[in-house]
Specification:
By secondary structure, this protein is of the alpha/beta class. The protein has 15 helices and twelve strands. It is globular. Keywords: Glycosidase, Hydrolase.
Length: about 475
């Protein structure tokens, strides 16, 4: 089948500062969330808020500290991305590079200069930066002093950071996003929002209070972006993927709706400008008292996002049957019953291309705003062949089917402005801390223990994606 995409469609890829840059304390950068996440069995518990220390511990390996050294190697990497024909590269700015503690009067010039150089290099090759302000990123000092986003002071500090980078890069960056996968706050609250919990605390109260502060901060960032860069577009970002009811039992169907609403809640506020009725009832039913200032409602109402960015890796399935719930997939952060109709990746993620089309349609039906697919990809273990290449046909197959599903959503009338696959070059996995879980078209010689030369090598999927971009998606089924 021939797929069709609009002229000017934004083809590219996506990485994050904390998973790619390394240089974790270089040029004045402060500690950030991911700098405290080691590999190994403790990682998931820490991401949930059980944090043993706000400084790196002896004897632990922290993969973000060097990552793939994008901080020093970005010129080389951008040459590869330009060869593939990228129109855009989604990156994040490390908040702690700009304000190392989050509270400095003046920004760190060395940090600002790094992103000047990065954006200039991208633009030199005709690649537009798409910039996320906060991608699992809070300066650790703000966690120590304020308890991170549980405290309202972070709204003020985030707004200052946002205004600083908008002013600095107003002539270089036209596409922005506020918080990466903002709904992750509910599932991995330390990773998503720097929240650390003490024994006996009301975790749900703290999470939703922090969510309110992030939503107000997001609206104020939208306001600042529109004022400082009038021709810019600024969006929100959702970890998306619809919940299917396991059966047509109305109890399962209702639970699927409720599970979807856990995530849509954030985008309802950012896109529609007000708390939905179901969220207000949720707070009432659970006795949650979300502290809001008098001006918050008007801030949320007046400063909604221009587009909806979302990640899509898999769909999810839910059931009210205790026996069915014993068969859960291992890899999904959101908790999902195994779907008997779908295959899974090596890491237990359900593979569901049609779910991409379903999700895109649901988002457009709900919000009536442009969509931007800012993450989609297959984490897999890649092996070198006899010629020191990587034949990643499994990745090509996954991406072919998802891009085709995206084109079907566009045919359905869904306005999708671009596609930035995750991640065009192998980087550290956010969920597991592994290098072995690879997504890229470009292999990076580094293992889970930090060994390797960091040499970059093209995979088979490199030439495949190059042809997809050259044909504006028409040649998605090219088999090289």
């Amino acid at each position: 089948m021939t797929t069709t995409f609009p002229q000017g469609f934004l083809w590219g890829g996506a990485i994050a500062a904390n998973q790619a840059e390394g240089a974790y304390l270089e040029d004045g950068k402060g500690l950030s969330i991911v700098d405290l996440l080691p590999t190994g069995e403790k990682r998931r518990s820490i991401m949930k808020g059980n944090v043993p220390s706000l400084t790196p511990l002896e004897g632990e390996f922290y993969p973000s500290h060097e990552a793939i050294d994008f901080y020093h190697r970005y010129p080389e990497d951008i040459v590869w991305l330009a060869e593939m024909g990228f129109k855009v590269l989604r990156v994040s700015i490390a908040w702690a590079r700009i304000f190392p503690t989050g509270e400095e009067e003046a920004p760190n010039e060395a940090g600002l200069l790094f992103y000047d150089r990065l954006f200039d290099e991208l633009l030199r090759y005709g690649i537009q930066p798409v910039v996320t302000l906060a991608h699992f990123d809070v300066p650790v000092h703000l966690i120590e002093k304020y308890g991170s986003w549980r405290h309202r002071q972070l709204i003020t500090l985030f707004e200052k950071y946002a205004k600083t980078v908008f002013a600095r890069y107003q002539h270089k960056v036209k596409y922005w996003m506020t918080f990466n996968e903002i709904n992750m706050l509910l599932h991995l609250p330390f990773l998503g929002a720097g929240l650390v919990f003490e024994e006996g605390e009301d975790v749900e109260q703290i999470k939703y209070q922090a969510a309110h502060h992030q939503l107000v901060a997001s609206a104020l960032a939208v306001k600042a972006c529109h004022e400082i860069i009038p021709d810019a577009q600024i969006g929100c970002m959702l970890a998306a993927g619809s919940f299917y009811p396991f059966t047509c039992n109305p109890e399962d169907v209702y639970q699927g709706m409720e599970k979807d609403r856990e995530s849509y809640f954030f985008i309802d506020v950012q896109s529609r400008g007000a708390y939905p009725g179901y969220a207000k009832r949720f707070f009432r039913d659970r006795g949650l008292d979300i502290q809001m200032e008098a001006e918050d409602a008007e801030i949320l109402k007046q400063h909604t996002v221009d587009y909806i960015g979302f990640s899509y890796y898999s769909s999810r399935t839910t059931s009210t049957d205790p026996e069915v719930n014993q068969k859960m997939t291992s890899g999904n952060v959101f908790g999902s019953v195994a779907n008997p109709y779908l295959a899974k990746s090596e890491w237990g993620w359900t593979i569901d291309p049609l779910g991409m089309r379903i999700t895109a349609n649901q988002l457009h039906d709900r919000y009536q705003k442009p969509l931007f697919v800012v993450e989609n990809g297959l984490g897999a273990h890649d092996e070198m062949n006899a010629d020191q290449g990587i034949d990643d046909d499994y990745r090509i197959d996954y991406l072919q089917k998802h891009i085709t599903a995206m084109s079907e959503a566009i045919e359905d009338g869904v306005p999708i402005i671009g596609y930035t696959c995750w991640a065009p070059i192998d980087i550290v996995s956010a969920s597991s801390g592994e290098m072995r879980k690879r997504y890229g078209y470009i292999y990076v010689d580094r293992d889970n223990e930090g060994n390797g030369t960091l040499q970059r090598i093209k995979k088979k999927s490199f030439a495949w994606y190059q042809k997809v971009i050259q044909s504006n998606g028409a040649d998605v089924e090219n088999n090289l």
